[in-house]
Amino acid sequence: MKKTLIGRKKGMMQFIAEDGTVYPVTICELGPCSVIQKKSKEKDGYSSLKVGFGVAKEKTVSKPVLTDLKKRNLPAFKVLREIEVFDDSLDVGSSITCDIFQENEIVEVTGVSKGRGFQGVMKRHGFGGGRQTHGSNFHRAPGSIGACAYPGEVWKGQKMPGRHGNKTVTVKNLKVVKVIKEKNIVLISGAVPGTMNSLIKVRAK
Fold first, then answer.
1. Which of 74, 80, 107, 117 is most enclosed, with most CB atoms within 10 A?
2. Phi and psi dihedrals of 146, rounded to 5?
3. Does 201 share its domain with 172?
C-alpha cells in the first residue's frame, strides 16, 4: 500500500542543496493527520483509513460528524478524507506525521488547479490562432468546428472555449527534497497544483 498524507500547499521557494544545486520547490504543510476510523473488508466491504486534518471549531462541523468524533474522544476536524491502509499498526487515535516520507523519495501530488474562468481556445487548449496582420480578420477565434454534410453536427469532445482550470489534477514523479518534521513541512521539487493554502494529497510512488 502507498503512504498517503493530507496537507496544504503553502507557496514556492528555492532550496540550495549542500552540493550547491538549486531546486525550485513547493512548500507543503503535511499533517499531522489523526486516524478517525479504520475500515475493514469484513465489516465495510473494503479497507481504508479515515483521517482528519486541521482542528476546527465545533460549531463549523455538522452534528452527526461531531457526535461520531466525540464518541471516539477526538476533536473536530476541518478536513476528513479516506486513504489507503499503508501501515497495519495504525488504529483510531493514531497520528500520522510528515516523517513517513523520506528525502529523495518519489511522490505524486493531487490538488485542485487554479480556476482561470471562461477562456478562449488559445489559452485553454494552446491553439496557435491566425495571422496577426491588419488584413486578416482571423486572430484568436477557434475556426471551423464541424464537418460539412456528415455528421451535420459538432463532433463530441471538440476543443471549444469554456471554463479553464478548477479541476482535480495529479502531478506524478515529483521528488521529496527535504522533510522538516518539527514544522510539519515537506519541500517537494517542482510545482504542484492549487493556490496557496489549498488542500493537497501527497502519495508515495
1. 107
2. -155, 175
3. yes
Q: Cell 484568436 maps to which residue?
A: 140
Q: Which class for 127: exposed (0-12), middle (13-18), buried (19 or more C-beta within 10 A)?
A: middle
What are the Cα distances from residue 60, in Å, to 68, 84, 186? 15, 27, 28
For residues 38 and 56, state if they share a domain.
yes
Same domain, 109 and 10: yes
Per the DSSP assignment, residues forming a β-bridge with 180 are 185
Q: What does DSSP assign to residue 154?
A: B
CB 3 within 8 A of CB 176: no
Task: List, in sequence order, the alpha helices (H) in the chain.
Answer: 41-44, 63-71, 121-125
Question: Residue 105 burial (CB < 10 Å; 0-12/13-18/19+)?
Answer: middle
Q: Are residues 38 and 22 in the same domain?
A: no
From first to last of its 205 residues, the chain has per-residue pLDDT tens of 688 999 999 999 999 988 888 989 999 999 899 999 888 888 889 988 889 998 888 888 899 989 888 888 888 999 999 988 888 888 888 888 898 999 889 999 999 999 999 999 999 999 999 999 999 999 999 998 888 888 888 888 999 999 999 999 999 999 999 999 899 999 999 889 999 999 999 998 7
State residue 33 phi and psi, 5-degree precision: -110, 135
